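hey team, just a heads up i'm posting the complex here instead of the shared drive bc the drive is being weird again. everything in one block, sequence lines first with there labels, then the predicted structure for the whole assembly after. its two chains so it's a bit long, scroll down
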Amino acid sequence: MSPTSDREMRSKLLFDRNLFTQIGLDSGALTMLGTLVHGFGDPGEYRGTAQKGDGPEATFQVSVDRSCAVAQVNVDLATLADEDDGCGDDARRFVVHPKGFAVFHVSGGSGGYWVNLRRADEDPAVKAYDSRRLEQGDIFSAVLLRPGRYAIENALSKARGEVTVAYPTVGKVAYRPPAALDAECGETIKPHAIRLKPAQGLNVHVTAPARVKITLVEPDDGPQSRPGSTAPRSRATRRKR
Amino acid sequence: MSDVTIAASANAFEQLFDAVRDNFHFSKSDSGSFGPFSASYSIALHLEDGTLTLNDDNTIEVKDVDIVWDTLEVQICFDLPCIPGFCVVPDPWNGCLVSFPEICLGSICAPVDLSGLVSEISDVKASLVPTYFVDPARLPGWSDLDAELNGHPNKWRIFIDPVWVNVDPIDIPATIDNLLENAVKNAIDSAISFLPGWMQDIVLAVLGPIIDLIISTLDIVTDIADWLSDLLGNLFGLLGIIETAVADYFASQYPIYEFEDPYPVLAAEPGLIPVKIPIRNLAATVNSKEMVVVADVGP
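-- predicted structure starts here --
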């Protein structure tokens, strides 16, 4: 028997309200359910800024190093802004293999972050990376928790598609979402109609400059509405009523 | 040969024992972490019934004493399963280079009230042990008369000194399945009540049938009743704790009989102090018919 300090003796849910109040997703304004995967390719030192709204929230460094075997570095944009901004700060320095990826995600809060990256040995001829304009090879990973019908679009090319998220049912065994579905977004969105199981992931592979926006069009409230539900309703729902 | 011999019949001894037994009350609470779950308990109990036998080998045997659990409250806390993450970039070996993080739900605590259960002390084997008690409130300068007048005389006390105490495992009823299932369901419903309906349904779908969730999360390989009995009796060590508490109580806290020393023979009268005789070398034994206490009148 060991002390109970590691688990409090009371119920404690970890839900961030933003998980169920932020319904739409935007690759140019990352929130908890949207993650950006970006590969660097060329070794070197990179300087980055996590931005929110008009101003920078935090800076960070990424060393892309052949001697490093790490394939994935997670850059939590939410906590990055909480760290003290200091030179040589390990909390803001990340190392990854040239064939690896930086995963920009938001662990909590309202999010809305985008990322700016440029090489430390700044070359005016090389344009900085701006996550509001995804590049070929980037992946925007998303989880659409709210069941319903969504519109998915590339805000840069106006390519459009549709995503449907099924309503969950309590079965005889615990439900586990199937593997994530892959889609492409560039000049067009393939497949045009994407059907997701509840809480199933969606990996949107960018094939041309893109800003992926996913917007709820019609929510699915399941076979019957629960009394006292505080579910946020979209404008489409209100119109329908 | 002893100067004083006092005997109490088996029936009288049984009444003395009943008083000792009925005065026993025990309460305790504790909590602990056991890997996948945490638990806490709060108990209060007393003893009832039982059959007493005096043996010719100078031992006392008590069987089938009921442990009445006036309070037996258990709370079990565990982490709910996470909504799993997924692979974003697979590697060529069917593994995953880059993954989307899982979404964890948190933990819940389910209280279960089993108050009113009855379990059993199957066997107590004991002998009698006299001890001499010097009242700690007695001042050093007091005479025996001063001590008596102030209500703090020395005493000979006869305790039942257990050789062993066997407490049976707590027999948790099979209805615990429903009790725990409802408790966990209520805890989950309460914890997720602030979520919109569709989010509640996602959580409930991920959790699956509550009874399966309990069994898998708490790593129950037998049945829930046996698991809970083992948790309380062995992991928390309640069987040993009760055995120790009972043994300690009988052996040193509540004597089955006690004599004032010096023993008052004649009460005080106006103008006369009481007549008291000092008791020395007190011994207590039992046989199948009675308890026998012998002592000398000493200086």
